[in-house]
Each structure stands twice: as structure tokens, then as C-alpha cells.
Amino acid sequence: MDVSIFDGGMTVSYPQNYNLLTAIDPKSEHLLTGIDFSELFREHTEEEKFLIESFSEVRGNAPIVPILQRESFRIPLSLHVTVEKLDMKLDEIYDQFNIPENETISYELQFREQDELQDFSEFLQSVKRVPQDSYNLDLTNLQSPFDGTHLKLDEDFNIEILKEGEGGTLYNDSGKYYTASKIDYIVNNNQISVPIVKEGSPPAYKRVEESGQSYLYDWEAPFMIWQMGTFQAGEEENDLTSSPLGIYSTKEVKTVVDGKELTPTITPGSFLAAPTAGVTTMEAASLIKGDEPIDAIRIKLNHITKYNKEAQERMESLATELSHAGYVVDIVAGSSFKSEKMNVEGIGEVVSPWTTLGISQLLANAWEIDTLLSIGLFSLFGFFWFFGHLGFERNRLDKENDILLSLGWQQRTIRSKNMMEQLLLVSISILLSLGLAISLRLSSLALIVLGCFLVISIILIATIFYSNTRQNDRSNKYKWLASIRYYKNLLLPTMLALILAVCITHLQIGSIYELWTTSTETTLGMFVFDQGLSIRILIVISTVMLSVLVLLEAIQGLIYARKDEFHMFFVVGWTEKAIKSFFLKEVLIWAGISLVIGTVISSVISIVMNIALTGVVLASVTSSVIYLIIVSASVIFRKYR
Amino acid sequence: MLTLTNIKKSVSQHTDVVLFRNISLQLRVGEWVSIVGPSGAGKTTLLNCIAGIQGGDQGSIELDGMEIHQLTNDERSNVRRLHIGFVFQDFKLLPYYSVLENVILPLARDKKKEQLTAKAKSLLEQVGIGEGYYHRLPSALSGGEKQRVAIARALINDPKLIICDEPTGNLDNDNKGQVLHILHTLKQKEHAIIVVTHDEEVAREGDRIYELKNHSLNEVGVKDVRDKLEENS
Ligand SMILES: Nc1ncnc2c1ncn2[C@@H]1O[C@H](COP(=O)(O)OP(=O)(O)OP(=O)(O)O)[C@@H](O)[C@H]1O
Ligand SMILES: [Mg+2]
């Protein structure tokens, strides 16, 4: 720290800080990220022109490096001040060092010899100090990179920001710079380690080359930094980095050692990933880095619509080709950060952000599940419509058929006529779903699920149309579940609706859980999850509501059909509570059977879709409980008289 | 045993329509009262009021010292289950329960099954339903058999009062005769019986015969019954 005493005033320079400057091709960067870099090319104001000219003169006509500063990028910095009072009278100095009474000490000291100054210094050291006060001043929000702010502490230790020219010259406009190599990560058995390249305090993990010169020591600098303004790297885009290289990551990079968070030490050799603090142009970069200013180019592969095996193979083959051509290739899909443990030499185990390709797989899965969900939902809509339709049809057809029968039609002819009509409807829906499936480019799994739904619908048609409405020629009673088996034709569609509702709800909850657990591992995943969460929850709620409506309707129909029965119970003197519990017991049996079937089916589908067991269990419990409550409530909150 | 005093009942059809008013009736143990009257006069409604299935608007119904319409819903249910037997024209048997189970149904939640089954068997024997029928479903019974099962069900609680709403309406002469015989025996066993009927022969079995017509209940002589019934049909 440079300290000088001057009339009781004291100047403290900031410690050196290092900030990442990235040269970009502003046009393509703008297209990619949507960030506005146009200020990089703005005209200088008259005042700036004057200043640049005057500086240029004294700085050997150094060329200008325009810089756009990253908005709200702050350098963590604090100042600790301890105030002590020297336990002596000022007169003692005047006496001891023969200073005339009408002069200030500092003025007089200018004319003293070196050994006298040494004595003076030793004298001051020997004086007893009385501690007075100490101050912790946070300067973080007052400093931004590539820019200097002159601060003044007044006598009460309040910070005051000085305007340009009030504090001093543009010391900060440094011509000193560092170029750093990439970190040599060593990956061994899935363990990432970071070796020290140069010992020191702190040690360097990159090979760092220092170049240029600060104006503090040399006016002949290679270039002159000029602030053009600031740019904003879309914080409103939540946590998603807007560039695949992650250089604009707004998310604070958190590195944790033994549970303690590391603040990015501002050294050029740090192993910590640091986002860029400012951008400049390619032309400016060549001033600093010479004829080969480009470190990295991004390559985007066209026509990748889905992260799948094929996409992966294409990426890998291109990467291989490029690395054979002598390039260093990183594959960064989706620039997603993931916390990764790495062993940093000299520090220990560190949890640090790490870009990952893993999200691609997750995205593909999420997409798959989404599609399945939508198909499920659509099928559900279809089914519920279909149920209503079939019930209605059956009634209508029964009457129509009676007329046809009495007109001399054969039972067989009538039946095939009915079936043809229904099959025509189903064929249309099959064609529509197939078209949808093909246009969505579904995987074979989705097609299988779709197929299952269609098979169920055909079974439905068959059961509803071939079941005999004229009940039971049995003379002896069923031993078990008598009422349920007696009313099976009435109950079957309700049970199927319940099974279906459980399946859809179960699958949705399972997939939300799965997405939640896997996606929160990475930043992009979290982003995707957050973006889709409200829609997912909406889908679950609407499914549940839809199922509830259909179930209530079905149970209402069931009770209506058995109105006389309930009345009879009432007439023979059963209390309403007794009737309710009798009916509830019966409902719980068939609803329970449906819940079990639905849970088993959807658990199997979930396991096939690779959903974690916890997710399956969670989904099973929640969906069963939801429908158990709904069914019970619809039985309990009703009058039976 | 049963005392009706000034019962009034109206039902709401578009506007409130008075079905009957100022109805008073006394029924003693071992007595059989028949009620006739045109369709829609309110006979079933009157029976429902007596049994506490429907509420009356005015007046009091006293069964064995209990004021039916001052009881709670559940208490009324208890009165029906423990003290009243019901027989309907359309039997009202549970289609999925066996004959035995139908008979014990009213008390199925009150007493032990073995006890009730033993009682049910003896009742079924009384009404002439043999052991071979015990486990049949009602759908496998004839109309007369069904009605006899229904009567057995009405007797499972040893009711003081037996209420019959056209018990023979769906039966042929043979079966009607059997049912009448059973009811007759019951009357002698000190049950009070109210029978609503359109059948002259059934009505004549009553110790007293009433006609419910033009909102009121009036006693009619045994010889007038045929005329009254013909008037009404
Ligand atoms: N809950 C009700 N709401 C409105 N009107 C009713 C109600 N119950 C019965 N009624 C009407 O009251 C009248 C009497 O009905 P009730 O069933 O008592 O007649 P009934 O004398 O038993 O006839 P039937 O001999 O045909 O059985 C009828 O017109 C009927 O439509
Ligand atoms: Mg009637």
C-alpha cells in the first residue's frame, strides 16, 4: 500500500485489481445475445476529444482501447481503518526538531536530510499510541472495473465521491495487462483436479504473462483505455447465461471450500471462473494481443432440433475434425452451470461451477415427457367426451334398436351397424392422433402409450355395446361384493374414468418431480424448470378438475340410478349416517380397486420412463390421496333421502 | 296406540296444494284400519307422514306416546326401524341381496347376524317361504313370493304398527289370498295394521274402513265400500 503524509492528509491507492476484458465481434455477439453493444462505436463528445488529445500528447500518441463496462459489475473491496492518537504535544516535535513556530511540520521536513527524517520517523514510532476508533468501510459499490473513482474520507470518516479532476489525475487508466492461459484441468476417474502453475500467494493456476506498463511509472504506454459506457447482460432472463461461453453469467459464481464461500480473489492466475467485466472490439484486442487476438470462436451446428444421439454424434464428429486440425475444442451445450467438486492444489476440495453437457439429455427427456403429458391430456379430454357420448349413444340406440327389432331387423345386423358407427368415430380419432404424433416427431415410447390409449378405447366400445343392459339371469346371490358386481355395467365406465384420471395425474406429478430433481442440478435446467413450472401446475390442476367433474357426474349418475334403493333404506328406518357409511364402504371398494389399478399402470409407465423411485412413490401417494378424498367427499357431502 | 289429531298436509306443485286437512284417526293394538280413496288423494303421503318419512304441516301424530314430528331425523329413523313395518305395492327388495339378507336388512346394523338370521328363517317360514329360497335373489322370485319376503322383512323388528301401501296391487288372486291370510294372522298377534288399498276384498278385512277424498278422511260402512271404489275408478 502506498502511503504518504501530506499536511495531515493521507493518500491510499487501491490495491491492484484484475478484471477480465473480452474482445467481441459486436455484431454477431448482439445477434446471439441480444445485448446492445452499440455504445462501443459512439462518437466521442467534444470534452472527451479534448481530453483524449491532451492525454495522447503526453502519452506518446498511444492508441485508444474503447471499453464498454459491464453494468453493476462490482469489485469486492473493503477498507479497514484504525485511528490511533499519538500521546504527546505537538510542541514536543517543534522543540525536538527545531521547527520554527510559524511553519508547518511537513513544510519544514522537506528541507531536512535523510538521516534527520529517519530520526523523525523513529521518534514518531516511539511515541505511545492511544487507540481511538476503528472503521470498516465497504467500498464495493463504489468501484467498477477499468475505471477509477476518487474517494475522500472526511474527518468523521464519511465517504465522499470526488468528481473528475478533484482528486487527482487518471492514474487508473492503466496500460498494464495480463494474458492468461487456460486452466489445465486434470480429469482422472471423474475427479477433476487443478494443479498450481506458479507458486505464490495466492498461487497461480494459469500461466500468466504480464505486459504493458502503468502510467504511474511510465508515460510511454502501449495503449490508453477509454470508457465508452456500460452494457447490461440481461438479468431479466433469470438465471440463464445469455452466451454459451458463460462470459456474461449474471449469476454470481459461487465457489465453496469446506462450506465456506470463496470471493473471487482478483488475481489473473485464479482458478475461479470469472465473468467478463467489460468488452472491447477486435481491433482493440489486436493492440493488446498482437496479430492473433482470437482465443475462441463459437460454432453453431445447424438443424439440430433435439438433443439426441444423432445430435451428439454430429457434435462429436465436428469436434474431432476441428481438434485434428489443431484447434482446442470445448463442447458447450446450453452453457449450463453445474456444481462440480474439484481438487484444487494448495486449497483442497472445492465446489465450483462447471459448464456441462448433461442438460441436453435432460432437455430431451423433459421434451419427451411434455409431449407424453400433452397427449395424455388430449386423450383424457377425448375419453371424457367419449364416455359421455357412449352412455348417451347406448341409451339412444337401445330405443332405436327396439324399433328396428320390432320392424324385423336381425339383432346381428343392428349390432354391426352400431359398431360400424362407433368404429368410424374411433378411426377418425386414430388418424388425428397419428397425424399429431407424426407432426410432433414422437419417439416410439410415446407411440406405444398412444397405442395403449387407443386399445383401451376400443375395449370400452366393445364392453359398453356388447354388455347386456338387461341384468343378470343369476338366481343366487354373489357371495362377495354383491352390489358392486350387480351394478358392474354402471360402475365399469366410472372405474375406467377413475383409473385414467389417476394415471394422468400420477404421470404428471412424477414428471414434475423428476424434472425438479434433475433440473435443479444445473442452471439451465433450473431455468427451463422455472419457465415450465406454472404451465405444468396448470396442466395438473386442469386435469384434476376435469377428472373431478367427470367423476362427480359419474357418481351422481350412480346415486340417481339407485335413488329408490336409498329411499328404501330410509323407509325401513336406516339413519342417513348408516346409509352413507353403507354406500361409502361400497364406493371405497371399487374406487380402491381402480386406484390400485391406476397406480400400478402409471408406476409401470413411470419406471419405463426412468422416473426415480421416490418420484413414483410420491406420485402414487399424492394421486391416490387426491382421488380418494374427491370420491369420498362426493359421497359424504350429499343427502340420501 | 296411534293417534292422529288434525293433520294437515300440503305439497308444492307450482303453488301449494292442500292434500288433506283436519285428519284425525285412532288405532288400537290388534286393530286393522283400511283406507281407500281415489288415486292422487294423498293416501301414500298420509302413510309417509305417519311413519315420519314426510313431515306434516299441522296437527300431531302420536305413536306409543311419542310425538313423531317432534323427534329429530335420526330419532324418526329409529322409530321406523324399531317399531314400524312397511309393505309396498312394488315390494322394494334390494336386487343384489338374497332373500335372507333382504329380510334382516332393517336391523342389519343393530343386531348380530346369527340372531337375525334365525329370526328371519322363522318369519319366512311363517309367510310360507321355504329353505330353498333363502339364498335366491329377488329377481328369481314370483310376485307373490316377493311380497311375502317383503312382509317377513316388515316383521323382523316385531313392529307395533304395520303399514301396507297397496300390498296386493301387483298380485293375482291366489297370492292376494295368501297375503291377506298372513296379515290376518298378524292382526291376531296384536299388531296394529293400516292398509291402503284399491281392492274391495282387502278393504273389507279392516275393522274400520276410511275413505280419503276431497282433502278429508271419513269412515265408510262396509257395504258402501264397493260403491266408493267404483266411484273412484
Ligand atoms: N313430494 C311431492 N311434491 C309434490 N307433490 C307431491 C309430492 N308427493 C306427492 N305429491 C302429489 O300429491 C298427491 C298425492 O300423492 P300420493 O302418492 O299420496 O297419492 P295416492 O293417494 O297414494 O295415490 P295412488 O292411489 O295413485 O297411489 C299427488 O298428486 C302427487 O302428485
Ligand atoms: Mg299411493
Automatic annotation (TrEMBL), chain A:
**Keywords linked to the UniProt accession:** Membrane, Transmembrane, Transmembrane helix
Report TM segments: 372-392, 422-440, 446-469, 490-513, 533-552, 587-609, 615-637
Keyword Transmembrane present in the record's keywords: the answer is yes
- Say yes or no: keyword Transmembrane present: yes
Q: Write down the superkingdom of origin.
A: Bacteria
Q: What is this protein called?
A: ABC transporter permease
* Organism this protein belongs to: Natronobacillus azotifigens
TrEMBL record, chain B:
Q: Which SMART domains match?
A: AAA
Q: What GO annotations for molecular function exist for this entry? A: ATP binding; ATP hydrolysis activity; transmembrane transporter activity
Q: Does the keyword ATP-binding apply?
A: yes
Q: Give start and end of each ABC transporter domain.
A: 2-233
Read off the Pfam families from this record.
ABC_tran
Q: What CDD domains does the record tag this protein with?
A: ABC_MJ0796_LolCDE_FtsE (cd03255)
Q: Does the keyword Glycoprotein apply?
A: no
Q: Which keywords, in A-to-Z order, does the entry hold?
A: ATP-binding, Nucleotide-binding, Transport
One cellular component term from this protein's GO annotations in UniProt: plasma membrane
| Protein's recorded name | ABC transporter ATP-binding protein
Query: What's the source species for this entry?
Result: Natronobacillus azotifigens
